[in-house]
Amino acid sequence: MQKLVNTHGIIGVADLTTELGVTEMTIRRDLKELEEEGLIQRIHGGAKLPKNLSKKELSHSEKQEINTSEKIYIAKQIASLIESDDTIFLGPGTTIEMVYDYLQVTPMRVVTNSIHVFNKFNQSNMYDLILIGGSYRERTGAFVGSIANQALSKLRVRKAFIGVNGINHNNLFTSNEEEGTTQSIIMDNAQETYIVADHSKIAKEDFFSFYDLDKTTAIITDENLTTVQKQVLEQYTRVIN
What we know:
It is a single chain. β10 (166-168) and β11 (171-174) form a beta hairpin. α8 runs parallel beside α9 (177-188). The chain is an alpha/beta fold. Helices cover 35% and strands 24% of the residues. Strands 6-5-4-9-12-14-15 form a seven-stranded parallel beta sheet, sandwiched between helices. The protein has a three-stranded antiparallel beta sheet with strand order 1-3-2. The chain has a three-stranded antiparallel beta sheet with strand order 10-11-13, with helices on one face. The chain has helices spanning 2-8, 13-20, 24-36, 60-64, 68-81, 94-97, 115-121, 146-153, 177-188, 227-233, and strands at residues 10-12, 41-43, 46-48, 87-90, 109-112, 128-131, 135-137, 142-144, 157-163, 166-168, 171-174, 190-196, 208-212, 218-220, 238-240.
């Protein structure tokens, strides 16, 4: 049913009944459940795609105050995937910054284009730490642009951990096209690519779609992910939660 809504953008209950060969009562029940998951929006006589486009890009300090417990849960999951002697890329994001607090292994090479991630890891001399420079975006603390892109294009990492602002089916979204372009370069150069997103990012979109979910190794999310959300994501990649 959801695929039909995605295909048509807007579709009536009568059309869904014909397409799926089930009763109108079943259609209306299923539409209610999908709306509760944020996957569709019910309208009179049918359903349409939800109004799921982010209204503004939050600042770094604003993001730090949101879904803190979920971020800690995800950061621990990320830390558990990192092994001694790994070369990893940690992208910008308030969840990814927390990974430092839960790491149990050394030595390791850490590459990042985030000043906030760099500042966390710079507290210790146990890591081979590389900060990628470029044009600085104060709003997220990320270095982007041609200088950053050129540097990352020459690097190869074993694992990349990338935060997103939204995931809608096979599309990964961010607020800024330069950040998205920079992240896509290192994702192409990683042996394993992990998407970092709490459950509130699922079925959401933002300004710039920068990568396909089915090209990634897995998505790391929190335990509040619903069954329906997990089923949708598993069409494209492995889910770790």
